[in-house]
Amino acid sequence: MSESEHVLDWLQSWYAAQCDGDWEHEWGVSLGTLDNPGWIVRIDLEETALKDREYPRQRLTRGEHDWVMAWTSERTFHIACGPGNLTEGLSIFRSWASEGGSGAL
Hints:
Blueprint: H1 7-18, H2 23-26, E1 29-34, E2 38-44, E3 58-63, E4 66-73, E5 76-81, H3 86-98
Antiparallel strand pairs: 1-2, 2-5, 3-4, 4-5
Helix pairs in contact: 1-3
């Protein structure tokens, strides 16, 4: 299996590590769909080690349904991507969150 195939396991572990009896009542991770078609992901960073880090808006477009966009705003990591790019988008979050040990599990 490739490293990207484990990104969902990593996200589950990251989420579980944030859950402290309080955080999960107000914050979390949401996954939805777009009508482009595509995916939208919002990962709350409030009250996490990542809350003050920024990720400037970046977009990579390879085709009409092959694209990924990621950015932070208002202490949230956002991912919007094409229907086949969810793993790629989540891998961007994992790489960013793991930089320099901040947010690494």
